[in-house]
């Protein structure tokens, strides 16, 4: 995904004059990892560097004493756990990415972490004051294995209708036409991939898996079988076909349930930012929500939020360590600003914000032109597709067993609801409150049923930065460096 720079601003763009950042929600992709065709996947040294650099970028923007757009009331050097909410699926790649990111966000505190005991002696914590910030683990009973070991997009969504909807892509005219028109292209790659894929598997049906394997090899393998076939044009088509394939599985405007992960994520974002708004005057209130997940959730959310209207690049897979931030800002000087005085800004970085020269860039949501939306407008638009209620999730997904058994008869409830007209007391309207309140229950259900996996990693991977370790490289290369 090579987003156009038409809307790009300078990196670390400071908040507008008189503007205060009340809080931020960050959704982040894991760092570079090994190839999916050779599980278990693992975060690589490069991947660790990518997410650590991103964490440092976010620290310089929001957390540090000299941050360019500091979050009001946030602790600068020592992490206050009540101000942070960090989560990632039970997956080594995602969990380790979150931990590395947090060490960039709150690095070892050094002398600041020194404590004086009652007897007058100083005690220095280990590792230079390493900060132990917990990452809430989302358990997926549905997946039974780590997220990044599954190649299929909906592998751990747990949502029956979402999986059916994604499978319908394989019978669509677009898919069948592309399958036929690219047959010779994928056949030509057999000398490169025949150590992993059979002749029958060399087709557009496996566009992502083939792309991932070759992309990994081009980064890490010193030699690749028949490497002369991998011209720049071939590599470009591999990527664009993988983008096309994964977008088809992640989002369809005629079948919104296909984007279930983005719908649940939308409800979580609203819930988190509303919590920040409600506790804006409290030092212990939530300032920063952070969630790590996979590229499919990005794609699903982008589709629902109408970001492809800004650029077709939003239909491609985001690079490793990509992230978006949703800022809650105000020009009010009140300790707890009214909802009418609060606005929201969406920013995105394709690839690590710390290694991307452009850093975070603002983009307009919901087919609008402005990049700064009133809180009520933002919440209302998100509420149109957000799934924040257990019953609504069950009915939308067609699930009737487990925690969904009580909703099988069609109990009352809505998937999203209108989220407009927030109250002037700094809260949100009753319809939005329904989405926000219900998502708290949904998070618990997600942990039990694997629903949250639909949010944090709709069984996806990534587009431009996949690579393997030497052991995995041997599958594609006769000699690895």
From TrEMBL:
Record-annotated membrane-spanning stretches: 435-458
UniProt keyword terms in alphabetical order: Membrane, Signal, Transmembrane, Transmembrane helix
Similarity comment: family membership: Belongs to the histidine acid phosphatase family.
Domain of life: Eukaryota
Pfam families in UniProt: His_Phos_2
Signal peptide start-end: 1-18
Protein name per UniProt: Uncharacterized protein
Source taxonomy: Eukaryota, Fungi, Dikarya, Ascomycota, Pezizomycotina
Keyword Cell cycle: no
UniProt entry tagged with the keyword ATP-binding: no
Molecular function terms, GO-annotated: phosphatase activity
Organism: Thermothielavioides terrestris (strain ATCC 38088 / NRRL 8126)
């Amino acid at each position: 995904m090579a987003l156009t720079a038409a809307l790009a601003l300078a990196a670390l763009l400071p908040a507008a004059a008189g503007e205060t950042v009340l809080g931020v929600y960050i959704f982040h992709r894991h760092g570079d990892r090994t190839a999916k065709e050779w599980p278990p996947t693992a975060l690589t040294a490069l991947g660790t560097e990518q997410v650590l650099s991103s964490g440092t970028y976010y620290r310089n923007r929001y957390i540090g004493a000299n941050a360019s757009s500091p979050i009001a009331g946030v602790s600068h050097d020592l992490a206050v756990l009540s101000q942070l909410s960090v989560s990632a699926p039970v997956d080594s790649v995602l969990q380790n990415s979150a931990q590395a990111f947090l060490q960039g966000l709150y690095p070892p505190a050094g002398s600041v972490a020194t404590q004086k005991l009652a007897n007058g002696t100083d005690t220095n914590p280990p590792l230079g004051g390493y900060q132990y910030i917990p990452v809430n683990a989302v358990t997926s009973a549905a997946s039974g294995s780590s997220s990044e070991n599954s190649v299929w997009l909906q592998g751990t969504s747990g949502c029956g209708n979402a999986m059916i909807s994604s499978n319908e892509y394989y019978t669509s005219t677009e898919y069948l036409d592309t399958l036929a028109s690219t047959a010779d292209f994928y056949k030509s790659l057999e000398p490169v991939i025949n150590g992993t894929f059979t002749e029958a598997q060399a087709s557009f049906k496996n566009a992502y898996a083939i792309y991932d394997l070759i992309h990994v090899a081009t980064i890490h393998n010193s030699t690749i079988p028949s490497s002369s076939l991998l011209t720049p044009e071939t590599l470009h088509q591999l990527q664009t076909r993988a983008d096309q394939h994964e977008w088809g599985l992640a989002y369809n405007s005629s079948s919104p349930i296909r984007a279930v992960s983005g719908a649940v994520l939308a409800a979580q974002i609203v819930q988190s930012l509303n919590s920040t708004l409600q506790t804006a005057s409290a030092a212990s209130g939530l300032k920063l929500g952070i969630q790590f997940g996979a590229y499919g959730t990005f794609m699903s959310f982008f589709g629902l939020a109408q970001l492809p209207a800004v650029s077709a690049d939003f239909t491609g897979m985001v690079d490793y360590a990509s992230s978006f931030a949703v800022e809650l800002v105000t020009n009010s000087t009140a300790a707890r600003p009214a909802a009418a005085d609060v606005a929201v800004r969406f920013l995105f970085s394709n690839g690590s914000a710390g290694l991307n020269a452009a850093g975070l860039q603002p983009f307009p949501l919901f087919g609008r032109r402005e990049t700064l939306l009133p809180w009520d407008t933002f919440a209302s638009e998100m509420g149109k597709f957000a799934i924040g209620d257990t019953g609504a999730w069950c009915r939308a997904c067609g699930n009737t067993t487990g925690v969904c058994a009580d909703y099988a008869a069609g109990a009352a409830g809505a998937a999203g609801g209108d989220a407009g007209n927030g109250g002037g007391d700094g809260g949100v309207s009753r319809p939005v409150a329904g989405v926000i309140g219900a998502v708290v229950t949904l998070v618990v259900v997600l942990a039990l049923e694997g629903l949250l996996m639909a949010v944090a990693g709709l069984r996806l991977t990534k587009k431009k930065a996949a690579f393997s370790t030497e052991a995995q490289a041997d599958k594609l290369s006769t000699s690895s460096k």
